[in-house]
Structures are given as structure tokens and as C-alpha cells.
Amino acid sequence: MNGDSSEVLGLLVRDIGEAGVAEMAGSPGLAAAVDQHVASLRDELGEPDEDELMGYLREFAEEAFNRGWWPDSTRDWEFVRIVAVCWLMREATAP
Questions:
Q1: What CA–CA distance (Å, rounded) separates 84 from 42?
Q2: Which helix (H) or strand (E) holds 4?
Q3: Which of 64, 42, 62 is CA-nearest to residue 52?
Q4: Which of 2, 13, 25, 32 is most buried as measured by Cβ atoms within 10 A of its Cβ?
């Protein structure tokens, strides 16, 4: 990603992650898929803090964009992964 990477990450978190987390309440299928990704991320990362999750998201997004992915499908693998990272970020910052 270029110098606008923080802006792109902010958009990913807000437009995909937060929207996806909100959408989970009315979509059991999405909630189940996110739950599977959360479990996979915990296996891979342990119990990461918010900074570690943002670093993961930055690398993940960069790799996805380099493969030609763009956030235009709300049910693709990348979308669900981003929602899962945002879900974990919420948990990491919860009191």
C-alpha cells in the first residue's frame, strides 16, 4: 500500500469491518463464518492486542490488493476475514 494506507485501513475497518460486525446480528451464516475466522486467527496469532491486529490487517489487505481483490463482494473470504479481525479488535479494546 502507498502513503494512503492508513486511510485505506480506516475505510476497511469502518466500511467492511464495522458494517460486517453489525450485519452479523441478522445473519447467522455470516456470524458462523466470522466465528470460524476468529478461531483461525486465534490459532495463528494467540491473543493479539489492537496494534498487532492492525498490523495483521495492513499486511492482509496489502496481499489481497496485490492479488487484485477489491471490496465489492460482501460475502467473499477476504470480507469475512476483515470482519473477523475487526471483531477481535473490539474484544481487544473492551474493558
A1: 10
A2: none
A3: 42
A4: 13
